[in-house]
Amino acid sequence: MKSLKQDIRYYQAILSYADKHGVTKAAIKYRTYRQFIYRLRNRYDATHTFFSFEDFKVQLARRNREHNNFPMRPLGWKSPSEALSLFLSCVTYDCQQIFG
Question: With a threshold of 0.70, does the pTM exceed it?
Answer without folding.
Answer: no
